[in-house]
Design goal:
The chain is mainly alpha-helical and 70 residues long. 59% of the residues lie in helices and 0% in strands. It starts with 10 loop residues before the first helix and ends with a helix.
Amino acid sequence: MSPSGGIALQGDKLRTLRENSGHSIRSLAKTIGLSYQMLGMVELGQRRASPSTAKAIADALGVTVQEIRE
């Protein structure tokens, strides 16, 4: 499945930041109100994040959207 419109995030960096923050995919997804399946697809580069989702992910991880963008 190719990425759709939205913001492409660096999956490896996103995964590293998530793990370093102590979050599992499920816990981060719950924190930001996203399904863990969708968050997994964003991490794998199969989906792009909407601007609001990208901001929620960045805020939850304590970084800026620019720091996790491709």
